[in-house]
Amino acid sequence: MKKSITHLVLFLTLLYGGNLFGQLRVELGDKYFDQFAYKKAIRLYAEAIEKDGAGWTVKAKLADCYYFISKPAKAVELYKEADGGEKQRLKSSQRYRYALCLQSLGQNKQGEAKTQLTLFYQDYTDKDLSNLDFRSVEPTETVAENLSFNSTYSDFGAVVINDTLYFTSSREKPNQRKHNKKLYKWNEQPFLDIYSAELNNHPEIELLIPEDSLKFEINTVAHEAGMTIFKDSIMGKEMMFMYYSGGEVNNNKIVYNKRGVSNLKLMGARRIVNQWVTDSTMNSKLERLNLDNFSVGNPAISPDKKRLFFVTCAPYPEAKGQTDIYYSDINKDGSFKKPVNLSIINTPGRESFPFVASDGTLYFSSDGPQKDSLGLGMLDIYRVRQINKVLNGEAASNIEHLGRPFNSEKDDFAFFIDPTERDDDGRAFGYFTSNRARRDSTGIREDDDIYRAKLKIEKKRIVIGVVSDIKTKDYLEDAIVELIDSEGKILDTLNLNSSGSFKFEIDNDRSFNLRVSKTRYFDRLITVNPSKSSDDNLEYDLELEPYPCDLYKRSRIEFARNSSEIDSISATSLNKLRDFLMSNSEIRIRIESHTDAIGSDVDNLKLSQKRADATEKYLTDAGVDRDQILSAVGLGENCPIHSEAFIKSQPSEMSDDYHRQNRRSKFIIEDCEGYASDCIED
């Protein structure tokens, strides 16, 4: 009996064992996939396919793994098999990754990539994608330099300050054995730490790694990466501070969540006696932005230190993609306001690695379509100038692709530049990270390396000036000056203080417009061509003409004898007045209508009121708000421009013209300083 049972168990094992082991491999692969342990998941999924005949869902998961470790060619092969042609079995997120991998393989795959992207976006938007195109990038002779301190591991995220280059690396620690005990599951490399390198007059970069690692007390057994460094004054003393991403640690052990994942959190540090140490005050305030179940990282602070940008995959209601860039305004006490989605650049794809240069330009990486155009491959680097003014509604956004050599068919990200370090040709080093293929002593490598290349920084010129009253020469407080480019886009807006002065920074040799406006003054617009001047500072003192108290000279309304009808000539003038009032809703007027002295006083008073009523009706029927007309009063013949005595003293052939000028409606602006009635005798 026992022998029979043994044979039965052996038979069942042979019959079902493959499926049982195959299912176990898939389940283990899923477990490691959820923990971002992609290399372990790859081995398990591959064995499940090869040994157990696992189906298309496992192939799609295996393709995802290759996508996440930046192996697009292998991912494309597996996505294609999993999708099954017309069956279209891939999930939306997998289809998006499939498209990006196709795109990274070059132009001969662009048609397939667009097909997959179109299918993907059908699940997210009703937008017409017929204009979706691949970006055309001009070739360049500029070569990106692979920096000498790059290791055989992942090196990325350069930040330069005080001639020191800070970066993140998973390189082996010099004071540990050859293979570190603790490996990160995603790529089976050591956990990330922050390092530094000294800039030696820029041509050469020498690595500085203290053997005792005391320079960075913030480095732990978990990840430390993606820093932004800034200076600030504490009690009159300038100090250096850092925001960075770090894994949570307790008693020198990494803290994992229920899914077995160590989430990144935003952390703060300050430099004390050449050491970077954790700042508990900064960390307590960053709790406002950190999350328990989702990573938050890639911090970037604005030059004025009033806004912090960061990245998260958290499913906020306003989230748009796999990872989005957010920002939080910083209060005076260093605390943070509610995060805001940077919706002007976020797509259903991945946006990450924000950096704000000292000139206010935001650089970021994205693999989604920007301005209806795709990048060159995977993550590409873009920029938006004057990001704070864009977010404050003071300037329009314009997303620019950085082109080659900063972008390639692979992942390009973590851009940094100091625009003030320009050479004589107006170029500055831009540092960035890429996993583009390169050859070294070990063969072809496609791991993250730090590169640099020079980027043309357009020379800036200063436009200065004052705005004053053309009559009194007084400076005009609260005047608004707008800087407008040659295509009509508002680049900057200033609301002037009591000095009436303004100052703009402009690109060299590009024509622009200055538009000046103020309540109760006529607008002024001038066009400036900087190329016609060799001065670094361009000075323009602008005078504005105030609205006249009596608008009669600008809106001449006259009537035929014994008539209150608005003729075509008067209608043209009233239309101009209508446009003026509708464009200046804060202006309110009084209407006064008059007659000549022909006829009785009583009849003329009635006739003048009819003229006032007709004038008011025309304006309101034409669209003027009734609240802008305070009154419409007929004054009869009591306030002539030309008195009867004057008219009789003139040649008889002129009398009709003088009487006609007396038959009028006039318009007086409310509370107008210096107004004097024209009801005077000649």
Condensed summary:
By secondary structure, this protein is of the alpha+beta class. It contains twelve helices and 40 strands.
Provide a descriptive summary of the structure in words:
- This protein has five domains: 20-134, Tetratricopeptide repeat domain (Serine Threonine Protein Phosphatase 5, Tetratricopeptide repeat), CATH 1.25.40.10; 147-287, no CATH class; 293-417, no CATH class; 460-544, Immunoglobulins (Immunoglobulin-like); 551-669, 60s Ribosomal Protein L30, Chain: A.
- It is built from twelve helices and 40 strands.
- The strands form twelve sheets. It has a four-stranded antiparallel β-sheet with strand order 2-28-25-24, with no helix packed on it. A four-stranded antiparallel β-sheet has the order 3-4-7-8, with no helix packed on it.
- Strand 9 (224-234) and strand 10 form a beta hairpin.
- Helix 1 (2-34) runs antiparallel to helix 2, helix 3 crosses helix 5 (92-104) and helix 5 runs antiparallel to helix 6.
- It is elongated and about 115 Å long.
